[in-house]
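User: Second chain of the day. Same drill as before.
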Amino acid sequence: MAAARSLRHLAAALLALILPAGAQADAPPRTVVLGGTLAEIIAALGAEDQLVGRDATSSWPESLLALPDVGYLRAVSAEGVLSLEPELIIADPGAGPEAAVDVLRASGVPYVTVPYERSAEGVIDKITATAAALHREAEGAALAARVRSQIDEAAARAAAIPEDARRGVLFVMSLQGGAVMVGGGGTTPDSLITMAGARNVAAAIDGYKVMTDEAIIAAAPDVILMTDGGMDAAMSAAAIRAHPALGHTPAAERGDIVMIDGLMVLGFGPRVGDAVLFLNDAFYPAADRGPQP
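Assistant: Same format as last time:
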């Protein structure tokens, strides 16, 4: 009996050496991620080492850039994904084109779509669903708890700001040829601005659209928010001040121009708590808060 057990153990050991890691029962599945926010969550869950491919929007943390790129989120190459021999695909609902997604779903590789909602609960749900797909529920619960704590802190700060004292913020997405693309209602920046206790002066605009010079001057934002992640090479505080409309806003005249990492403000992922707390501090500096409880 002992000899038989020894032979079985030896056979199992040899099999483990011969089989590729993905074929071993205890090994995590080779995973391709389609969606930058999902990639951030996977990395935050400590599962980055099982990723074998990513889409072009999955660029943070920077270590992800070493992985094969299967194309932009909405223009994914099904052949490129399948060439990586994945055992699991985790995707944003916006992954496409539809024909490529159909090929991936028909391939037999488990394809998990993680819901997306621009809200505090939406972030928690996304973390929980991603953790469940990776069988990392404990890590997911810990990450969700940390993010929820940050969001709750931001909500408490926002609740303490009277409605008539809420600063007006304009998110400038891009500045090409003088045309100002802003983040209106229903966008991620709109949600973050509100969660940080401010108001989006472009909220009446639906989505990301060009805002006229006249409308910008009339909106008179107290703060201009923009990304520092290279979303637009023409973007800079100097360009804002030199613009014929933006330069005449209270924000530009006082120098209240806030820069934030592009992925933090455009994604709703594990850093959303960090983003909201950062924005709250930027919109309402400690010196302007008055006595604290």
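The first strand starts at residue 31 and ends at 34.

User: Great, on to the next one.
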